[in-house]
Amino acid sequence: MELVKIMPCLDMKEGRVVKGVNFIHLKDAGDPVENAAFYQKEGADELAMLDIDATLENRKTRLEWIQKVAEVIDIPLTVGGGITSIEDIEMVLEAGADKVSMNSAAVKDPDLVKRSADQFGSDKITVAIDGKGHPSMPSGYELVIAGGTEPVGRDAAAWAEQCEALGAGAILPTSMDGDGTQAGYDLKFTRAISSSVNLPVIASGGAGTLEHFYKGVTEGGAQILLAASVFHFRLLSIRQVKEYLMDKGLQVNL
Predict the structure, then answer these.
(1) Residue 41, Cβ density class (10 Å: 0-12 exposed, 13-18 middle, ≥19 buried)
(2) How does pLDDT run across 217-227, given as a tens digit for each residue?
(3) For a disulfide at 120, which of 7, 88, 124, 171, Cβ 3.0-4.6 Å?
């Protein structure tokens, strides 16, 4: 049985952690360094840090945010937002990230996935895929980019398959319809992605209860469970989630 991992996510804006619903209505969720240290102590297996405005503002990820967070943790740190080139990846990894997550730039230049996997290794490259329900797509989900503002007219699951072929090491699907709602992962979307690739899939967007985490694995097919709101606002602890999953027969690192 595969080890299930828990991955809190720091969505960053103007140096603070924020959390919204459906990618909007953002609320402050604290200091990134304090949150990162807290989550490591709580037993997080990995940490994600996404500069949510980098692409929209057409700028690079703020390296000083990465450096400060990387200094207080030794669990793997995945950084995303505004990564558009090999040089960006180099700078982010040098700043202390262990992996990068790319989204819009990969859709616009798929060869970036191949070049970066060739240069840094597949295990360093995560492709984030934002999807929105669309009945005319084969998987039922359309690929969207630019922080969910731009529909691409392509099937999200087909893009995941292409990313695997290009050398990506993990896929991070987020359903815009579920993000921040605490109504549960979009299991249909997560399963559409996980059933189309043989890579670790990171369930994301909407976790609100212990059962949601369990279903992310058993129904969504994810190996890594990303969450933000429930952890930032201390509705659940990482230990609570892990103990629940273990009681349900899943394998976790306590």
Answers:
(1) exposed
(2) 999 999 999 99
(3) 124
